Amino acid sequence: MKPQRPEFTCLIGCEEMLLPSLMLGADGGTIATSGVVPEVIMALYHAFLAGNFAEAKRIQFKLLELINTMLVGPNFPDGFRAGASLRGFSLGSNRQLISPKEQVDLAGIRSKIACILADCGFAEAAGACQRAESPANNGAKAAGVEVDAMVREIMSRLQVKR
Fold first, then answer.
1. pTM (2 decimals)?
2. How far apart are CA 31 and CA 38, in angstroms?
3. Which of 20, 56, 65, 118 is the most exposed place for a label (fewest CB within 10 A)?
């Protein structure tokens, strides 16, 4: 599109495609996690512009972990509300009643979001982070290895040039 219409702006709307879209010529994105970690989104964007693709990829994977965790909540958008509250923003309470089990699930999700935020350098969330190794975490690590291999293969095929 850009060669025919250089003034055309292309923004994407999902975290899963932010870095790949930038690599293919997109201008940026309007994505949900930017309401919780706008600094992280900008860090990815600036790393990409600087040609630091390893750092941009590292941040991209953290964003994937964050968005997937925020989407798991018992009632949408509880995960986003938890993420914002960990950053000090109050978005109010849920209008739907949540069961005791859902409250426990949400506490676990809140803790995982806090750990992700702490890993991204947001100290205010570190106190709510309670890490626990589990088989589910090991599966996520294995999936990350598969995704890493796919990204390397695609990058070698594209031979990204700046």
1. 0.70
2. 10
3. 20
Residue 112 placed within a domain: yes
Domain that holds residue 80: 11-158
Q: Which of 42, 49, 50 is nearest to 120 (CA)?
A: 42
Distance CA(37)–CA(15), nearest Å, equals 12
Helix (H, G, I), strand (E, B) or coil at 29: strand
What CATH number does the domain containing 123 carry? 3.20.20.70
- The number of distinct structural domains making up the chain is 1
Q: Residue 79 domain-assigned?
A: yes
Peptide bond into 77 cis (omega under 30): yes
Q: What is the pLDDT of residues 42-83, one digit of tens each?
A: 999 999 999 999 999 999 998 898 888 888 767 778 888 888
Tokens for 124, please give them: 């205010």
Q: Please, are residues 126 and 114 in contact by the beta-carbon 8 Å criterion?
A: yes
